[in-house]
Amino acid sequence: MTRWWVVILTGATAFGLKYLGHLVPARWLANERLRRINEYVPVALLSALVVAEGLVDKTRVVIDHRAIGLGVAAVALLARAPFFVVVILAALASAIAVHLG
Is residue 70 within 8 Å of residue 94, measured between CB atoms? Predict the structure, then answer.
């Protein structure tokens, strides 16, 4: 199977799943418990992605310049800095750590 077939099948699967989502009865979506769970799913997925990309190298957990950038970003977010400032501070901290390290 070539790469293009994989891309086409993945796209078709994603489209099919999205289409099936429109067929879910509205009364299911009105369920308060389900609605609360669905509010946290994107947060959990994004958090897992940040940890996987920021602290994992292949099969090992590593503490390197990416962890320093994540730490600086966390502090900036806790200080309620604008998102642009958070990104710039994290990038600068990570770059300084690479340069010094």
Answer: no
**Confidence bin at 29 (pLDDT 50/70/90):** confident
Residue 77 phi, psi (nearest 5): -70, -40
Nearest to residue 93, comparing CAs of 69, 75, 62? 69
> For the chain, how far is it from start to end, CA to CA, in angstroms?
44
State the pTM of this model. 0.62
pLDDT for the residue 75: 97
Q: Using CA atoms of 89, 93, 96, 101 in order, give the dihedral in degrees to the nearest 10.
A: -170
Q: Where are the domains of the chain?
A: 1-30
Per-residue pLDDT band for 1 (boundaries 50, 70, 90) equals low
Give the closest residue to 77 by CA, choosing from 88, 63, 66.
88
Looking up tokens 């940040």 gives 50
Taking the C-alpha atoms of residue 82 and residue 44, their distance in angstroms, rounded to an integer, is 22
